[in-house]
Design a protein that fits this description.
- The complex is a heterodimer.
- Chain A is of the alpha/beta class.
- In chain A, about 35% of the residues lie in helices and about 25% in strands.
- A 6-stranded mixed beta sheet of chain A has the order 6-7-8-3-9-10, sandwiched between helices. Chain A has a 4-stranded antiparallel beta sheet with strand order 2-1-4-5, covered by helices on one side.
- In chain A, helix 3 packs parallel to helix 5, helix 4 crosses helix 5 and helix 5 runs parallel beside helix 6.
- The relative contact order of chain A is 0.19.
- The N terminus of chain A is likely disordered.
- Chain B is about 50% helix and about 20% strand.
- Chain B has a 6-stranded mixed beta barrel.
- In chain B, strand 2 and strand 3 form a beta hairpin.
- In chain B, helix 2 packs antiparallel against helix 12.
- Chain B is elongated.
- The chains are: A alpha/beta, B alpha+beta.
- Chains A and B meet through helix 1, helix 2 and helix 3 of A and helix 1 and helix 10 of B.
Chain lengths: ~250, ~375
């Protein structure tokens, strides 16, 4: 097992985090979620962050996505140093460059599928008609052609997650961040979703970062970062990845 | 995004209807009560518009137009002798009891006009000739008096020209029907000549209720009023002065303004309570979606604008329904003329401002919550 964080060539770095510290609460209730975590992800790879519940996976993902400010450390995403940027600049950066897929899908129930999917485009200033045309195209790519005007509540969990994937990819982001995308889904649907995400990661210059504790999806990863107690304790790729997956599957 | 914001609002049908309903009710309460209040205030000074004199002279202790303290007959000549007074005529006004043809007693507002000039005559005659008031026992009644529930009781129809009734056991014969503005006391008007009115009214030592006067052409009314007051010791008013005095009297001596203002304020508070609570609950229920939008790159400013748009939209729709219902109320009661009702365009603008303020306050609670919202909330299961 390779326990040291990788040192890839910086020109292929999609995400880089150094010495991230993040604590929640005050006094006796204070909990340190990240304890000087280092992390890197490369362009063009599907990177899983795995570990037991409470190890800090989601907190790390939030910091990398720029939705949560760390107490210490530095984060660079797609060559932009997020640390020190104004909140409005981070928001604009997220809007343009990052796609999100959430565990609970977070589709707006009162909007149609095509309206839900067009949101990132509208936030980036695309006109409504163009945004809806692109959104419809994305829905078609995830197998939901003809259902553009339906509401999320009319779909199964797997279908809703497909909509979420379409929404995350519609504005062609270079980084897609996924939080437990398969945990609310059955095995077959989970694999279908991972197939879609794996395909998305193959787009030129795009990276997909997934937090999961679902061992069924480990096989899709190009690289896996293992976390425990607020730190990245191991990074697996190549042969060590196969060994890690084998060991995890057996356990 | 703004179109989507509206769809988010309209999609939550229950909250949307609750918001619109609450604001409509609040708008209705505020505008309807204010319109009735305005109508009532208009009634307090209607007497002046019915008489249309430039100068009103009353006993020194009289504070407002609907109040009567009799003066001596000689006071009329004293007013006439004041420099600048073109002419002055006596006016009798008093609430008397009339007997309808069915034998029931009805209260009336008796007005006795100067026989020579008939100055202070009703603004519009519908039927008959006002000059016939000079005939014995002749009266001109307004449309309210003619109604079957008033002096027409027992006739099976409204009173017409030629019909008779009794005022204090004396015959009164209708020679004309006129249109007047409703008096503050709500009693119908019955006009007669001054001398005839004194016959109808119970005899007292002093019978002159008011003196109506006009200034000489080119003279300032206020200056003539000042001279009358100074030279006679009576109290004289121009129309604006009398209106102001009457309204001040209503504000300081009756509970009417407080009662209406309380309801109007309650309407506002109810609007704030319903709208604020419902809209905040709408925001809370959508917090996760708003967090997702924030994570995807929606700025605080954009989310605030979306919330404001949503609240203002329900505000405009709610106010529209409320003011529509108020107008409907006004149209419904227009025929009967009761309760008094007067829509004031200025207040409509103010009420709309109040409703939009309610909406802005409601949105503000939501905006504060959303501004503090960490987008990372969406990553927490």
């Amino acid at each position: 097992m390779n326990t040291a964080p990788p040192s890839p060539s910086t020109d292929r770095l999609a995400v880089s985090a150094r010495g991230i510290v993040k604590a929640f609460g005050v006094g006796d209730a204070r909990t340190q979620a990240l304890k000087g975590t280092d992390f890197t992800a490369l362009e063009g790879e599907l990177h899983l962050i795995v570990g037991p519940s409470g190890c800090g996976k989601t907190t790390l993902l939030s910091v990398l996505a720029g939705t949560l400010e760390s107490d210490q450390g530095e984060v660079s995403v797609l060559g932009t140093r997020l640390t020190g940027l104004a909140a409005s600049q981070v928001t604009r950066f997220r809007c343009r460059h990052i796609g999100f897929i959430f565990q609970q899908f977070n589709l707006i129930p009162t909007l149609s599928l095509v309206e839900n999917v067009s949101v990132p485009l509208l936030l980036n200033g695309t006109g409504r008609h163009e945004a809806e045309a692109k959104a419809a195209e994305r829905l078609k790519q995830v197998g939901l052609a003809g259902r553009e005007r339906q509401r999320p509540t009319q779909l199964s969990g797997g279908q809703q997650q497909r909509v979420a994937i379409a929404r995350a990819l519609v504005h062609e982001p270079r980084l897609v961040i996924c939080d437990e995308p398969t945990s609310a889904l059955d095995s077959v649907t989970g694999h279908q979703i991972m197939d879609l995400l794996s395909g998305a990661a193959r787009a030129p210059g795009r990276s997909v970062l997934i937090v999961t504790h679902d061992p069924r999806v480990y096989g899709y990863a190009d690289r896996i970062s293992e976390m425990e107690d607020g730190r990245v304790t191991g990074v697996h790729s190549g042969d060590s990845l196969a060994a890690f997956i084998h060991a995890e599957t057996r356990s | 995004m703004f179109l989507l914001a509206l769809k988010m609002l309209l999609g939550d049908r229950a909250k949307y209807l609750m918001l619109v309903g609450g604001l409509a009710f609040s708008s209705l309460l505020m505008t309807q009560q204010y319109s009735v209040f305005q109508g009532l205030l208009a009634w307090t000074t209607s007497h002046m518009r019915n008489m249309r004199a430039s100068i009103w002279v009353v006993e020194a202790r009289v504070d407002q137009v609907n109040e009567t303290k009799a003066m001596r007959d000689t006071d009329l000549n004293r007013v006439r002798s004041v420099d600048g007074v073109d002419f002055a005529v006596p006016l009798f006004q008093g609430v008397l009891k009339a007997r309808a043809p069915d034998g029931s007693d009805k209260m009336i507002q008796m007005i006795g006009l100067h026989s020579g000039t008939l100055f202070g005559r009703p603004p519009r005659m519908i039927e008959g000739d006002i000059t016939q008031l000079r005939l014995p026992n002749a009266v001109v009644i307004d449309t309210l008096a003619a109604e079957m529930t008033r002096l027409g009781a027992g006739m099976g129809r409204p009173l017409r020209i030629g019909d008779t009734f009794e005022i204090n056991d004396r015959e009164a014969r209708v020679v004309g029907i006129c249109q007047t503005e409703r008096h503050f006391f709500g009693y119908p008007y019955v006009f007669s000549s001054y001398d005839q009115a004194l016959q109808y009214a119970p005899r007292q030592r002093k019978m002159l209720s008011m003196i109506l006067a006009e200034p000489k052409p080119g003279l300032d009314e206020a200056e003539v009023v000042r001279r009358i007051t100074a030279e006679t010791g009576l109290r004289a008013f121009t129309v604006p002065q009398m209106e102001k005095a009457t309204l001040r009297w209503v504000w300081t001596n009756t509970g009417i303004p407080i009662s209406f203002l309380t309801t109007i304020i309650l309407g506002f508070v109810v609007g704030v309570a319903i709208c604020g609570q419902t809209f905040y609950s709408f925001v809370l229920e959508n917090l996760r979606n708003l967090g997702a939008l924030k994570a995807m790159g929606a700025s605080n400013g954009l989310l605030a604008a979306m919330l404001l748009l949503q609240s203002m939209t329900v505000g405009v729709i709610g106010f529209g329904i409320g003011i529509g219902l108020t107008a409907l109320f006004g149209l419904t009661i227009a025929k009967s003329g009761q309760p008094p009702f007067k829509i004031d365009a200025g207040f409509i603008v103010q009420a709309m401002g109040a409703v939009l303020l309610i909406c802005a306050l409601a949105a503000l609670f939501g905006i504060r919550r959303v501004a503090k919202l960490e987008p990372a909330i969406v990553f927490r299961g």
